[in-house]
Amino acid sequence: MFEVSPDVFTNNRVSSMMDTGKAVKDLIARPEEKHENTTGLAAIASHHLDEVYKAAGCLWESMSDPATAHSFESNETPFNLGLNVKTSFWDTIVLPDPYWQYRQRRFHIGIKGAGSLEPADAILKAFDWRSLPKGSIVVDVGGGIGGPALVLARNVPDIKIVIQDTPTVISEGTTPLWARELPEALASGRVTLQAHDFFTPQPIKNASVFLLKQIMHDWPDKYAIKILSQLRQAARPDTRLIIVDSAIPFACHDPSGDKGKGVVGAVPKEAPEPLLANYGVTNEMTYFADVTVCKMKHFKLEKDSCIG
């Protein structure tokens, strides 16, 4: 923002992205609806200024306390200290309390806004979806409100999509979005919305693809293994697993990356010299997201951790 006259400010091109587009009188009259029907960018900014910054204020306490410094548990994080709660971030935002119900809704609107910062067709480039036989089932595990699945449904009409998430997300977030954006896909059965806990046995046994988009970074290794194990047990011999997530690169050359991991996309592409291998400041959002996840969802102080 910039000041056009004493105590009078206006938005510039950057700050205008944070504007909900709603009149001040409406925001005062109905503050709980502030982020409804917006781009979501103001919502994700508010989430960071609220829960994330409160958690950041307790980062040192988590790092220095022997009881939590090496913890892999998602209810022993700076978030728990900063917000004074005993449950994990995911269990907390679904509490039947107006304070958290508002923040859950804001968070999911914000995630949609954050997703809008990437190219709309990014998910289409993750895999050759049109190579799947007609009627193939794609399961979007932990799919949230189903933003990427919406792109798939609009561009690859011959596949069937199952979006799975918690009951609250499905009823309050996913269902309204799809009823508004692509109701015919729900009516025809081409898209199914399913409440499911991905730590429990996967109910879809005939999936062609299990999609995990921005899921694995939220969980420490032992919980990530539990998620993947449930999918492995439900998979057919020809089922594909597609993980869309951020791979955190080193700032220096990684010799182990020369050999590859046998998995396409598992090794980050390094920048050519004399640039830093991680592209320097250009890649700062990846590291910012990494530290945010540590503060909010799981925290450990190890040599391979985000902080340590």
TrEMBL record:
One of its GO terms (molecular function) is O-methyltransferase activity. It comes from the Eukaryota. Coiled coil: none annotated. PANTHER family: O-METHYLTRANSFERASE CICE, PUTATIVE (AFU_ORTHOLOGUE AFUA_4G14580)-RELATED. GO terms for biological process: methylation. Pfam families: Methyltransf_2 (PF00891). This is O-methyltransferase C-terminal domain-containing protein. Keywords: Methyltransferase, S-adenosyl-L-methionine, Transferase. Residues 108-257 form the O-methyltransferase C-terminal domain. InterPro entries: COMT-like, COMT_C, SAM-dependent_MTases_sf.
